[in-house]
Write a structure and sequence with these properties.
Helices cover 50% and strands 0% of the residues. It is built from four helices and no strands. The longest helix is centred in the C-terminal third of the chain and has 12 residues, at 53-64. It is globular. It starts with 10 loop residues before the first helix and ends with a helix. The relative contact order is 0.23. The mean pLDDT is 85.
Length: 66
């Protein structure tokens, strides 16, 4: 898949297109079943959880193999 994850990617899109990232998102406290936060963008999720967006994106991409 050539799609990339960026700050405007929604969490539900990440889970749908990159299921290998589920464990990382769960570790970060981001994605509960039926949770409305699944509609959040990566940027908002990082803000809400007090995470550095650049570190988060780097880790997601690393776990994608990119």
């Amino acid at each position: 898949m050539t799609e990339d994850i960026n700050t405007s990617t929604k969490l539900k899109e990440v889970l749908k297109n990159f299921p290998e990232l589920t464990d990382y998102l769960l570790e970060m406290g981001l994605c509960g079943c039926g949770d409305e936060s699944l509609d959040w963008t990566i940027s908002r999720a990082a803000d809400e959880k007090g995470l550095d967006i650049n570190i988060m994106l780097d880790e997601l991409r690393k776990r994608m193999g990119g």
